[in-house]
Automatic annotation (TrEMBL):
Keyword Translocase appears in the UniProt entry: no
UniProt superkingdom: Eukaryota
Stretch forming the signal peptide: 1-16
Domain annotation Fungal lipase-type: ranges: 97-238
Keyword terms, alphabetized: Disulfide bond, Signal
Entry-linked SUPFAM superfamilies: alpha/beta-Hydrolases
Entry's family note: Belongs to the AB hydrolase superfamily. Lipase family. Class 3 subfamily.
Organism: Coniophora puteana (strain RWD-64-598)
Protein name according to UniProt: Lipase
GO biological process per UniProt: lipid metabolic process
């Protein structure tokens, strides 16, 4: 680290230290925990592969790294509807649901041009019955999630019955992470209460408001991993009312994976402190690598 950067980092710490908020401390993840994410990272990356390839599970490296996967359904056209797939991993004993991400440079401008707004999650009460009116999310993400909601739910129901499992894991990178997070709120509202869910997101942008983040913290098991100076996880900005749920893991430049407790942890070991604005970001960090996996098909 250069002297100037070190000085800036120390200045940031000095400015943050008098804050009255007490936070849990940041801890480094061990290698076995990091390696435990990797099958899901390959699944998130396979979300970029065409439906014909994920349905046959012959999508190349991404598929080869989870060789026992049994696909159930896939869809999307990669244009007006992002690709998605659902299947069963017999090693993990879990149904996997994955959504495709998108081109990072287009995505960044979409999320910084403010040509979007926070919309009530239960606008379509068929999809999100009974959730509080105070919960609001990005209108574009909400519209996209609705396009695949019925097909994803049907495939998950089929898989749970076919493979006698009650475990469902949702994965995604980039826009796919946002869709996966909305599916993680949607699916439990339509599946038996004994179903266990977890969500693993990579390069997740902010999806909703404070009430949404609080709902996610109270009801989901979310881990969202972001890489070095990726600017996507800091947009849309907090000044627009967007808040990240807890569950952040930040891959630092030094290679350490920091578990960052709380919502939008401001530490320089976490994305909000590390990338104060998009001009400090490095867009190529968005695709990884995440423990050796670079997103894409
Ligand atoms: C709600 O979403 C479902 C599933 O996408 C759709 O079939 C239905 O038409 C939507 N209802 C309204 C009122 O938009």
């Amino acid at each position: 680290m250069s002297f100037v950067l070190l000085t800036l980092a120390l200045a940031g710490l000095a400015a943050a230290s008098p804050a009255p908020i007490r936070r849990q401390s940041i801890t480094a993840l061990g290698q076995s925990t990091i390696d435990g994410f990797t099958p899901y990272t390959w699944y998130a990356s396979a979300g970029y592969c065409a439906p014909s390839a994920t349905l046959a599970w012959n999508c190349g490296t991404n598929c080869d790294n989870n060789p026992s996967f049994e696909p159930i359904a896939s869809g999307g056209d990669g244009d007006s509807v992002q690709y998605w797939y659902v299947g069963y991993d017999p090693t993990l004993g879990e149904i996997i649901v994955a959504h495709q991400g998108t081109d990072p440079s287009e995505f960044e401008s979409d999320l910084t041009d403010a040509d979007f707004f926070l919309e009530q999650l239960n606008t379509n009460s068929t999809l999100f019955p009974g959730v509080s009116d105070s919960i609001e999310v990005h209108n574009g993400f909400l519209a996209e999630q609705a396009l695949t909601a019925d097909a994803v739910l049907a495939a998950v129901q089929q898989g749970m019955s076919q493979y006698s499992t009650t475990a469902v894991t949702l994965v995604g990178h980039s826009l796919g992470a946002a869709l996966s997070l909305l599916d993680s709120v949607y699916l439990p509202l339509h599946l038996p209460s004994g179903t266990s869910f977890k969500t693993l997101n990579y390069g997740l942008p902010r999806v909703g408001n404070q009430a949404f983040a609080d709902y996610v913290d109270a009801n989901l098991h979310l881990t969202h991993i972001n890489n070095e100076e990726d600017p996507i996880p800091i947009v849309p900005g907090m000044f627009l009312g967007f808040v990240h749920p807890a569950g952040e893991v930040h891959i630092e430049d030094v290679g350490e994976w920091a578990s960052c407790p709380g919502q939008d942890n401001p530490s320089t070991q976490c994305i909000v402190g590390d990338v104060p604005n998009v001009f400090d970001g490095t867009l190529s960090d968005h695709d990884g690598p995440y423990n050796g996996v670079t997103m894409g098909c």
